Amino acid sequence: PGCRIELLANEGCIHHCPFKPAHDAHIALSNTGLVREATWSLNRNRGCHTYFFSRPHKFLKSPFIRPEDVHRYEGIADGIKLGGRTLGPRFLKRCITAYSAGSFQGNLLELMDAASFMADHFHLDNTALEPDFFKSLTTCTNRCKPCRICDALFTKAARKKASRFNRYKDIS
User: Fold this and answer.
1) How much of the chain is helix, strand and coil, in % rounded to 5?
2) Where do runs of H (alpha helix) occur along 10-148?
3) Which of 12, 22, 40, 73 could make an S-S bridge to 112, C-beta 3.0–4.6 Å?
4) Where are the domains of the chain?
5) pLDDT tens readout for residues 70-81
6) For residues 73 and 90, what is the distance between their CA atoms, to the nearest angstrom?
7) What is the pTM of this model?
């Protein structure tokens, strides 16, 4: 009574991420200017970047809601929140457009906040995810070894992108 429930739709962090409390605390402190932001390099070298690059299919286990599934939460939650304000206006416009329309015809990783770095390395075709993806996600038992659903879905819907290098003059 008297409280609203909002669901964060596009975080895309590791399921039960062991790094999240420290990561969020560090981001909060860096936003105050008390410490310099260092989470990106920490995550790249020791955290979620390493985790997801070694097992990219685990992204499908992360907590997120596809634009196509937002309507399923009507009457359950009071609202949907979109993360990613630190990723800039182009990212936010893409997210707001997709979630408002209830569909997205592109790389699902381009809508994720915490896992946005994966979009440079993988193309996860949102339209290639099965119509019953929501059911697969919400009935997950978290017993991954015998299941292999996430692995099979990722293999079907995703492709690794070719490595790109910036020209030297673009970096300097």
Assistant:
1) 55, 10, 35
2) 20-32, 39-46, 48-54, 89-101, 133-138, 144-147
3) 12
4) 6-171
5) 999 999 999 999
6) 26
7) 0.86
